[in-house]
Amino acid sequence: MPPAFTVIGASKKKVIIDTDPGIDDAMAILLAFESPELDIIGITTTFGNVRTQMATYNALHLCDVGGRDDIPVAQGLETSLRGVIKNRIADFVHGNDGLGNTNPAPPKRSAIAQSAPEFLIQKCKELPGEITVVALGPLTNIAKAVEDDPTFTKNVGQIIILGGAFMVNGNVNPAAEANVFGDPEAADIVFTCGADITVIGINITHQVFFTDKEMDEVRDSKGKYASYLYKASRFYFDYHHDFYDIDAIFLHDPTTIVAAIDPSLFTYTSGVVRVQTDGICKGLTVFNTTTKKWAETTAWCNLPPVKVAVTVDAPAVAKILKDRLMGLHHK
């Protein structure tokens, strides 16, 4: 049997987490801290679950919780790529502070002077082909990096995106998933930019969940973050009970981190993804998996494919999160 831990000296995946914490973002970030497979070289912040300044505050706070003051945090854009201020903040999902109204302690340090797009561009130039960007919020910062640096799509190793709803309804409205809906123009730019892209949509993340009983088990464990996350998750559980009528929470962001840790737990299909940018279907992700040659040249032609996750070993993904939050794995 192979050892159930990472061998010393094994290559770690260098990641930058682009995030809008968010209760499940907090779970994802703390999971990343407990994952020896990952070398977190930075966190960048965006709007979504909270506004960008609050996302930065929460990201810095989570670094304090994890004892990771070595990780630089770069603040991202406060509006959409085209300058639109986001009206919809998900306080009804994550609380006014993004962390379940737990009033997180002020962070001990500030964000770095560089903006998130500048940080993304610089790090990918320094380490071409080596960095995986895990995008847990709207894709504004990444689209800005694509627009500002023509070499970014070649320099970035991989982009793993939490976003879209493929062959299922959205979670903002029947057409749209929240991260794509937050900045559909940015999402369309990123999906078609030609980088190595893997997409984890809510067709996948709605299969991965913790029950209230499982969260109780996390709380009662000796895990480093068990009590902290249990308190933050109460608000999130209430939202799922009220809006979905379930005694469980979906693990959107942690599932996307697991896709960086162990991509073999998913299967994928390749094709072109475009995003509807206005109208009643604003934020809709349309996935072309056909091999048909179209008679006319359209906005679908000559675009690079992305990989979209179509199945997941949901129990295995949830187990990775649960074990690591409970302190049951070996570093």
Describe the structure in your own words.
With about 325 residues, the chain is of the alpha/beta class. It is built from 13 helices and 11 strands. The chain has one domain: Inosine-uridine Nucleoside N-ribohydrolase, Chain A (Alpha-Beta Complex). Helix 4 crosses helix 5 and helix 5 crosses helix 8. The longest helix is centred in the last third of the chain and has 19 residues. It is globular, with a radius of gyration of 19 Å.
Summarize the topology:
Blueprint: E1 13-19, H1 23-33, E2 38-45, H2 52-65, E3 73-75, H3 91-94, H4 116-126, E4 131-135, H5 140-148, H6 152-155, E5 158-162, H7 178-182, H8 184-191, E6 197-200, H9 202-205, E7 209-211, H10 212-219, H11 226-244, E8 248-250, H12 252-261, E9 266-275, E10 285-288, E11 306-312, H13 314-325
Parallel strand pairs: 1-2, 1-4, 2-3, 4-5, 5-6, 6-11
Antiparallel strand pairs: 7-8, 9-10, 9-11
